[in-house]
Design a protein that fits this description.
DNA-binding, 12 helices, homodimer, 434 Repressor (Amino-terminal Domain), alpha/beta, Rossmann fold, 6-stranded parallel β-sheet, 3-stranded parallel β-sheet
Chain lengths: 343, 343
DNA sequence: AAACTTTCCGAAACCGCTTTCGGTCAGAGT
DNA sequence: ACTCTGACCGAAAGCGGTTTCGGAAAGTTT
């Protein structure tokens, strides 16, 4: 029988090669390399040396097959931009790091068919768990409960309350924004939001209004809803300031909007933060740190979200009773020049 | 022997379950599901039906083990931002899509140790190939030639010429920028670059200067080198315009810089594009489309890069002779409002 | 010195699948 | 009626590991 040439068949070393070289049996070699106790120190050394000499790389496929776990979790995202999924990936890798688990990232690009396909690919590869990341905080369809592995939804919660979802606490974020502006001595506060159809937009507004109410203040003007863009931030700010020149603080639904608002303020020769303070949402570094002045904003702690998701997956794998429902994770105020005067 | 409870051991269906249910042997079931010809149509139908009934999901681990290929490639990146790696991932997935290959993404975060670790993880999982993505176009250390799988370097080329690297043609990009400004009727062109220590910065400048030379023009002022930031773009533009008020076109080393430059032009009440045209580099959508006016820029065709990388991996897997060296991939001019007057 | 432990090792089963290869059996050829 | 083909199917041998379990050798007790 002719060996098919073509594929660069540089045969990789196998455990029996190691065993043979060390003069022990397959079983002993395995035990030696896995740190099992039933093997004499001298033997173990011999095996390890042999393995190194032929640069043996254990075949995880074989191992996974028998152990019935792959030490791999799937990260199924539809966030093509990557601004949410990458921090989450990093957080998850950190949390898994200790357990030598790796993360398999699939990008469904917001396409249900592709998502189905990738889900299937993950299941066929027998991942131990799946983290689903959406690109907005609106509820998304559940993957269902027939899955043989634990699933955690991050950022976009599942629409099925018996799934476990982790999502940033937008309401708290909105509240935090307003409280910060008040702490900055402002009382004539306006709000430029994004697309009203987003839960995130509404939740943030709700939190903000709550905080204003608690402080006995009223919003200046109406909440301005439109789209999540710098363009809208500019236009909305212009409209607001024309109608309500007394405004001394603007809460924005996103960093993009905030940048637009700051742009307009600059055009209008209103100093930030002296005359008007501005706060954004997301802490999208590239936007927040490059604006003039740098943008105070709310960080949704994506990395932490990823870490927590990983832990929940772990717990579920280990058979602990799985939690359910939407868990709102704390957000964090990041103070920069747009609210606090730089010295 | 007590079955270990704990892990949600919902036993997943196996091929023998299918075989049994369909009343055929394991071998026949396998053949039926894989579309092999040595099985009668009726039998095949029976097997397929059985598989569906118990929602059989083939175990790729087992399959990979025997086929000696995983239909998985690793994407090893150090681009935490994700602005390069995600388009590349998408391109690669597209190219592989047909062959039902999936991509395993690992983020080394620019850390050599982590990179080593992930590389090992990929090899243990027996990926069929590896795509290495850097976050800048400077050469990076090769992973070496001892690897049992094909490797393609993307964006950041390998420092070993016998590796295959795909990187955008920054020189052509620089040239394209200048040619476009000239086509816009400009002749007093300045250049704001980024960090001089980056090959990308120097290559782009080189291309630009070449194009100027070909047109019989001279650069206005010196090439300004500093950092890749909006801040620098603002400052550099201010300096340039003070010293050389005649400038009617600015080539920028990145979109960030270009945004800064546009900002300054706005402050100075110089109209873009009427008085001065500006061109960036990268086509980083979030920056380019939100500036006032939107930014004309050079797109490095990352997605195409990913697709090509995937194809090269395929070829190498199939045993075709592998190419070597650094291949400079074409870039593309994206025209927006900062160079062409909007109607 | 006999009996009993303990320590260390290896044969073999198994994980879930693919593939080879020999066997059955129906229909075709003569 | 009898061989000869094919077409179809299944037993069994792996793929590269882990793990069980029995046994040999060495050390401990009496």
């Amino acid at each position: 029988m002719v060996q098919r040439e073509g594929r660069a068949e540089r045969r990789v070393a196998t455990l029996s090669d190691v065993a043979q070289r060390a003069g022990v049996s397959l079983a002993t070699a395995s035990k030696a390399l896995n740190g099992r106790s039933e093997v004499a120190p001298a033997t173990r050394q011999r095996v390890i040396a042999a393995a190194e000499e032929i640069s043996f790389t254990p075949n995880q496929l074989a191992r996974s097959l028998v152990e019935n776990r792959t030490r791999t979790v799937g990260l199924l995202t539809s966030d093509l931009e990557g601004r949410f999924v990458l921090p989450i990936l990093i957080g998850a890798e950190d949390a898994f790091g200790a357990g030598r688990v790796d993360v398999f990232l699939c990008d469904a690009r917001g396409d249900a068919v592709r998502e189905r396909h990738h889900l299937n690919a993950l299941l066929e590869r027998r991942v131990d768990g799946i983290i689903v990341v959406g690109r907005q905080t609106d509820p998304r369809p559940s993957l269902g409960h027939e899955l043989p592995v634990p699933v955690v939804y991050v950022y976009a919660p599942s629409d099925d309350p018996s799934d476990l979802s982790l999502t940033p606490d937008n309401r708290a974020g909105g509240r935090l924004s307003v409280e910060h502006l008040i702490a900055c001595g402002r009382s004539r506060i306006a709000y430029i939001s994004g697309d009203r159809s987003y839960v995130a937009a509404r939740d943030r507004v709700e939190g903000a209004l709550g905080a204003l109410d608690d402080a006995g203040l009223e919003l200046v003007g109406e909440v301005m809803y439109s789209e999540w863009s710098e363009h809208w931030g500019r236009d909305a700010a212009a409209m607001l300031l024309t109608k309500h020149p007394e405004i001394d603080g603007i809460v924005c639904g996103s960093d993009q909007i905030a940048r637009g608002a700051i742009d307009t303020l600059r055009d209008l020769r209103r100093a930030v933060p002296d005359d008007v303070v501005v706060i954004g949402f997301d802490n999208w570094e590239i936007l927040a740190t490059n604006s003039r002045p740098a943008l105070t904003t709310i960080d949704a702690n994506m990395q932490e979200l990823g870490r927590t998701a990983a832990q929940r997956i772990f717990e579920a794998i280990d058979g602990e009773v799985t939690e359910q429902g939407i868990h709102y994770q704390p957000v964090r105020l990041v103070i920069r020049g747009s609210t606090i005067e730089r010295r």
